[in-house]
UniProtKB/TrEMBL annotation:
One Pfam family here: Rep_fac-A_C
Domain Replication factor A C-terminal residues, every copy: 9-95
Protein name (record): DDIAS protein
Matching InterPro entries: DDIAS, NA-bd_OB-fold, Rep_factor-A_C
GO biological process: negative regulation of intrinsic apoptotic signaling pathway in response to DNA damage
GO cellular component, one term: cytoplasm
Length: 130
């Protein structure tokens, strides 16, 4: 699954969603089911306390090369340099900001993050390993 089939030089046309991080299983990287106190991985069965959940980047993009449009999703720590922090630290910053500012500003902080990601990626050319 991790073998590279080829390289694709393409420009980012748009960001496909506003959710850039997800709670991920440390064993299989699948999305965790979280409730207020526990997490559960439906794929491999891992469980634990919600406060110990790990987070991972997931950035869905629409990209274009000279001939075609593609939908592509970039996962994991390769995005750390673009965000400046790990996904776990970004999740912590978002939670801390939401608690300090209250629920009324949660949408504003999400909007600011989306705008920053769009500025960083849209219109830029990258080489994608596919």
């Amino acid at each position: 699954m991790n073998s590279v089939k080829g390289l694709l030089a393409a420009s980012v046309i748009s960001i496909q969603n506003s959710c850039f991080i997800y709670p991920a299983c440390k064993t299989c990287f699948s999305r965790l089911i979280l409730d207020s106190r526990r997490f559960n991985c439906l794929k491999c069965g891992c469980t634990g306390e919600a406060k110990d959940a790990s987070y991972r980047y997931r950035l869905s993009l629409k990209i274009a090369d000279t001939n075609d449009l593609f939908d592509i999703t970039v996962f994991g720590s390769c995005l750390d340099p673009f965000f400046g922090v790990t996904a776990e630290n970004l999740q912590r910053y978002i939670q801390d900001f939401s608690q300090l500012s209250g629920e009324a500003n949660a949408e504003a902080s999400t909007g600011a993050l989306v705008q920053a990601v769009e500025t960083c990626f849209i219109g830029k050319r990258f080489i994608f390993a596919v």
